[in-house]
Amino acid sequence: MFGEKLKAIRTKNHLSMDDLAKELNKKFNTKISKSMISRWESNQTDPSITNVKYLMKFFGVDYSYFVEDTDNVYTNKLYQPSNAHPLSKNIVKVPVIGQIAMGMPITAEQNIEGYDAIELQYDIPADELFELECEGHSMEPTIPNGAIGLFEVTSTVEDGEIAAVQVDHDSEATLKRIQHAKGQILLKPDNPAYPTLTIDKDHPGRIVGRLLEYRVKMHR
């Protein structure tokens, strides 16, 4: 598996996950984090095509190192990046979003920290889906901290639906229940301990996706 290969070459070079993240960011001016590397090594998510290239260049290995004797999703795809890699009729690869670049589509390559395999159960094209880790407690008890949400790429949601929203040029999305008002969009938490946020002319923001479902990891 890719994760085992990455861990092996990292430890062989006497690098911690934090060390590797810092070295990659310094060398390639990227935004890879220790947690991203941890998810790659545990095979929770697959790195993007761009990040695979960075790893190859950094460690001085060719593509075969990561795919030899493995059932790797990147076979014959290294120079054909895509936001969704079909594995079978109902299993697809969808991008896992990290930081969000302002003004860019949510699934732009620079926003993607990896890919995850899911069973497609919606009549929605795979390249219009993305995943996002739901961090924080504002949507509890509906959505627990650390849940992984599956979203449809859209800027339009109905009142009462839960959406991923980028607020005030923040590089991360917040998850809130939507309510439209005159000239405003109210972002309402399910947890009453948190305040309602507002999108209007004085507080810019954009809806980037509608929540379809979420799952909770048994071990984090």
UniProtKB/TrEMBL annotation:
SUPFAM superfamilies: lambda repressor-like DNA-binding domains, LexA/Signal peptidase. Gene3D superfamilies: lambda repressor-like DNA-binding domains, Umud Fragment, subunit A. This is Helix-turn-helix domain-containing protein. GO terms for molecular function: DNA binding. InterPro entries: Cro/C1-type_HTH (IPR001387), Lambda_DNA-bd_dom_sf (IPR010982), LexA-like (IPR039418), LexA/Signal_pep-like_sf (IPR036286), LexA_repressor (IPR050077), Peptidase_S24_S26A/B/C (IPR015927). PROSITE patterns: HTH_CROC1. Pfam families: HTH_3 (PF01381), Peptidase_S24 (PF00717). Residues 6-66 form the HTH cro/C1-type domain.
